[in-house]
Design a protein that fits this description.
With 379 residues, this protein is of the alpha+beta class. The protein has 11 helices and 13 strands.
């Protein structure tokens, strides 16, 4: 170990550096740490005033500390409920578990194409079939699609599955999780304006939410495909002639309702045609036993009772492949998963929660990039 003398005191040099050696005060050390934080999360304007940079670095560090605590809390929440934490492959022979454009790579030794995981869902359900009745995975997934303040190509989420429950049980579990997470991170302070996380969360059908949040819309209009198409044209919302009435309603919901869902809200009764892995409702064969969960205009979670009929699942996979609107390399017939279903998937419900978006909400961050340690930047 090399040494040097500073002010008649011998100091050990423990870390190699290319910067000139000097005596550091506590303020110097703190300032250095702030500078290192900028290497992780550089400011948009590198010429910003020093005080602004310092304030930004403190806020950034607090944001990431909350992200770490959030993930730790969620992990412990499920472990305490008796769930097993598992790991599934990040490289897949075929993409599956969601409809998204995958990242593609090549395995030199095996001589095969592989795809980065777009969702761990099918592997997790194989574990349910194998006898693991309560499981979760905090995972990294990848989707080779557009970027926005709410979307990043690499993202973190938790997916969890439990046998012998349904999607309604998951809604109750999700409400307990979010409320306890809020108390853990923020206590009882008035963090959100006009958002009460202490009251019972709202639950409303997709159809009724369109009417509730668009007071000038009439039920007869959005129940008639021709009138609804005219309405979408008036609103400058794109649609396709092949789309059914139910799918047009979803498009209208996404364009006019989602951003207005400030209160914690479960949206239910999604069409089966956009829910290929969901169980069909016993009440209405055009609806799925599925929900999506929203807070402050963000879609946070997606959950449903799992379709466990191998014949029907096989049919849905084939329908996806021939869907005329799908024109990218992401939809495959997953023969391995169908074979696993033939052994018997018990009645199961599963859900995915976006960790990045959840962190955005609990830190009041405006962009998903603000809650990611090392965000991808264009050179």
């Amino acid at each position: 170990m090399k040494t040097m003398k500073v002010m008649n005191k011998t100091k050990e040099i423990t870390t190699p550096t290319c910067e000139p050696l000097r005596c550091l005060s506590r303020e110097d050390i703190d300032r250095t740490r702030e500078g290192l934080l900028f290497l992780i999360h550089p400011p948009k304007n590198k010429f910003a005033p020093v005080e602004l940079k310092k304030a930004k670095s403190i806020k950034t560090k607090e944001c990431f500390i909350n992200r770490i605590k959030l993930i730790q809390f969620i992990r412990n929440f499920f472990l305490n409920l008796g769930f097993f934490e598992v790991e599934t492959p990040m490289m897949h022979n075929i993409p599956g578990g969601a409809s998204a454009r995958p990242f593609k790579t090549y395995h030199n030794t095996l001589g095969i194409n592989l795809y980065l995981r777009i969702a761990p869902e099918l592997y997790l359900k194989k574990l349910i079939i194998g006898g693991f009745e309560k499981i979760f995975e905090i995972n990294r997934s990848f989707r080779n699609e557009g970027l926005s303040t709410r979307h990043n190509s690499e993202f973190t989420m938790i997916e969890f599955y439990q046998a012998y429950i349904d999607y309604k049980d998951l809604m109750e579990l999700t409400e307990i999780l979010i409320k306890n997470l809020f108390k853990f991170l923020l206590g009882n302070i008035d963090f959100f304006e006009n958002i009460d996380l202490n009251s019972r969360f709202d639950c409303i059908t997709l159809f009724n939410s369109i009417l509730k949040y668009n007071i000038d819309f009439e039920s007869d209009v959005i129940s008639n495909i021709d009138l609804l198409r005219n309405k979408l044209n008036l609103l400058n919302i794109s649609w396709d002639n092949s789309w059914s009435l139910e799918k047009l309603q979803v498009v209208l919901f996404e364009s006019t309702v989602e951003i207005k869902l400030k209160k914690p809200t479960f949206i239910i009764d999604y069409p089966t045609e956009i829910s290929p892995l969901s169980k069909i409702s016993n009440i209405n064969c055009k609806k799925a036993d599925r929900f999506e969960f929203f807070i402050n205009g963000f879609e946070i979670a997606n959950g449903f009772s799992e379709l466990n009929d191998s014949i029907l699942q096989s049919k849905k996979f084939k329908e996806q492949i021939i869907d005329s609107e799908i024109n990218f390399d992401s939809i495959y017939y997953d023969d391995d998963y169908i074979r696993a279903l033939e052994y018997g998937l018990p009645p199961t419900a599963g859900e995915g929660i976006g960790i990045d978006r959840l962190t955005m909400i609990f830190t009041k961050s405006l962009s998903i990039k603000d809650v990611i340690f090392f965000r991808l930047m264009k050179n």
